Amino acid sequence: MRAERMLLTGSRRRTVTPGTTYNFAGGPSMLPASVLAQVREEFAGEELAGESGRPTILEAPFSSARFRSLIEDTELRLRRLVGISDEYVVLFLQGGATAQFALVPLNLLGNAGRADYIETGYWSHRAIEEAQRYGWINVASSGAASHFSSIPKPDGWRLDPRAAYVHITSNETADGLEYHWTPDVGSTALVSDMTAAFLTRPIDVARYAVIYASAQKNLGVAGLTLVVVRRDVLGRAHPHTPSTFHYARQADARSMLNTPPMFAIYVANLILQWLDREGGLAEMEQRAQQRSDIVYAAIDRSDGFYRCPVERQDRSRINICFRPANNDLTPLFLEQAMRHGLLNLAGHGRIGGLRASLYNAMPVAGAHTLAQWLGEFARRYG
User: Fold this and answer.
1) How far apart are CA 326 and CA 306, in angstroms?
2) Torsions phi, psi for 231 (to 5 deg)
3) Helix 96-108 crosses helix 122-131 at what angle (to 10 degrees)?
4) Mean pLDDT lowest among 6-10, 40-44, 287-291, 305-309
5) What is the distance between the terminal CA atoms of the chain, rounded to a whole angstrom?
6) Residues 6 or more apart from 242 whose CB is under 8 A from it?
7) What are the backbone angles phi and psi of residue 307, rounded to the nearest 5°?
8) Sheet holding 319-324, edge to edge
9) Please, which residues bridge with residue 357 across strands?
10) Which top CATH class is 280-381?
11) How far is it, in rounded angstroms, from Cα 360 to Cα 117?
12) How do residues 103-116 score in pLDDT, each as one tens digit?
């Protein structure tokens, strides 16, 4: 048996000594160990479909009673966990959250033809760029002038009273900012890309018209995008909106107008069961705060060796973005961190630096281990 196992990173191989490893990837993220075990039991058992005569969920028709039961149970579990009332429809769609950058304006602009967006970092900027293809987009406030070091204060937002909706990105995974409050936009529909922060704390769904989130952060694997839509905004879609991307038509078809991402929904169901067993969203919030407090404390006590550009009140609990004051040390940090079993700490490709993503499946022990390594590296090279 080999004393070391090999990891492939880009085109270069790295060795990691045996022991516990922690995956800090921005996404797809690590999954709970118990969920991975359930998936292995279902798909890697000795009795395969051809031998047992019973197809796996990957082989079952999406129109079958078995899959219908699964998607209905997944929706019911989600509604109970998050507190989603019957005033909302729950859609299980494909295309990732990035596809929603186009689908939100296509489905919501309606006769108004205009919307407000708050720019807080890389992903909200991407959403603005895409939405501008479909209507008049008012950037009601932007943090670009401060290099996205903080979320613009709402009293300075220049909202358009004729806007069909106001769009925010609740957590900027590339820049490390998070809304720790829900904006008050009056009677205008509030839309939020909650991809990274969804299921990490309780939310008041009634404050929003649309919530959307890719699954690969806290709800399973890539391929599924959850969209929660208030029923009273379903009738605004542009007439040329493709049927598979039309919220109202997918709602009528119970997310099965076309073949849904069946495996991703199966994993999401297991994640929702895990969240129930672990204590629900209040427990997830407590753990998220604990993990981020541990890592931020290590950064802040480094006497400037590490720098986090985000103002304290807007720091993300989920994606901690920072860098060494001497940026030349970044490649060495990543190299040595990997050898210590701390994986995928590179910042977003367009931003650079370092990033520790602390999604729900990350144990508190992972945060402690990272904090210890931050201190050790700073002592060694500071």
Assistant:
1) 8
2) -60, -30
3) 40
4) 6-10
5) 38
6) none
7) -130, 130
8) 306-307, 319-324, 354-357
9) 319
10) alpha beta
11) 28
12) 999 999 999 999 99
Which stretches within the chain are classed as H helix?
A: 33-43, 49-52, 65-82, 96-108, 122-131, 247-252, 262-278, 280-300, 330-339, 364-381
- Structural tokens at position 83: 């507190």
The pTM of this model reads 0.92
Domain locations along the chain: 65-276, 280-381
Find, among 367, 359, 288, the residue nearest to 31 by Cα. 359
Catalytic center residues: 123, 193, 217
Q: Phi, psi (5° rounding) for residue 3?
A: -75, -15
Q: What is the bridge-based pairing of β-strands 5-9 and 12-16?
A: antiparallel
Q: Provide the token pair at 340.
A: 């210590």
The answer to whether 364 touches 290, Cβ cutoff 8 Å, is: yes
CA torsion sign for 343, 345, 346, 351 is: positive
Nearest to 168 by CA among 117, 208, 105: 117
- Each residue's pLDDT tens digit, 305-330: 999 999 999 999 999 999 999 999 99
CATH number for the domain formed by residue range(s) 65-276: 3.40.640.10
- How many Å apart are CA 244 and CA 247, to the nearest integer? 8
Residue 6 CA from chain centroid, whole number: 28
Structure tokens at 11: 């085109």
Q: Are 29 and 218 within 8 A, CB to CB?
A: yes
Pairing status of strand 136-142 against strand 319-324 = unpaired
Q: Alpha-carbon distance 335 to 355, whole Å?
A: 14
DSSP classification of residue 72:
H
Answer yes or no: are the C-beta atoms of 236 and 109 closer than 8 Å. yes
User: How many helices (DSSP H) and strands (DSSP E) are in the chain?
Assistant: 10, 16
